[in-house]
Write a structure and sequence with these properties.
The protein is of the alpha+beta class. It has eight helices and 14 strands. The longest helix has 17 residues.
Amino acid sequence: MSALLSDEQIAAFSRDGFLAIPDFMGAETRSAVRQRAVDLVNAWEPSGENTVFTTEEQERVSNHEFLSSGGKIWCFFEEEAFDERGELRQSKELSINKIGHAQHDLDDVFEEATYTSDLAQIASDIGMADALALQSMYIFKQPGIGGEVNCHQDGTFLYTDPLSVTGFWFAIEDATLENGCLWAAPGGHKAPLRKLFRRLGTDDDGTTFEELDDTPLPDPAKDLFPLEVPAGTMVILNGKLPHWSDVNRSPVSRHAYTLHCISGSADYPDWNWLQRPEDMPLRRLDRSDRR
């Protein structure tokens, strides 16, 4: 298959560390993925531990459900979903931050939306001919309580040697300044990786951040560029690119689907927080390893 990205688009991705491709995911696929996400939430029952997704470093602890979610489908609540008594402030379907992290391999609808020839070709166009689908998330960015995602680099959390993680972010709904669109630092991927997020051992031993470089990450208020994009847009994110999204205080949600891929030739350490069961090997995005 011939390249889908132009030389100009490839150069822009190399220069900026991100690239927005309009009209990549069609309306029918967006509708199917959105409905399936809602169905998964409705069918999901917490296990007794209300797993809240947070990006605050001090709050990232050894939550078993989080650290074991690399090989399953799990729902994570918004930080502001619960009142002071620990009760949901609103319905469950309006309280979930995200679904993760293996629905691309465990759910037929997400699998069909993920393993496409066009996405595999675009990955190849940017130098990932051997891309493996590592992690997926369906992010709701709920009205009024959709949490902030602190400025970070994906390579901190999904490290490979050499660094290869690349994010493919799909706007299921319009992403605007009001409902918490992505913001990125153009060219910021050319600076060092600041930290690593490491397991300390088993699921119950916790995690830690290891500092690699003390250069501050960009200040969202001064240094980042907003990526307001309409539904259907795919945004590609370099693994070292600092990016951020604000809290959603608007009455409108900002659903998105995110896939992170790594190079099949890179080493993926066993101290990464996300680990898959031995009977769930990663699959190539182009499905050339399909049995």
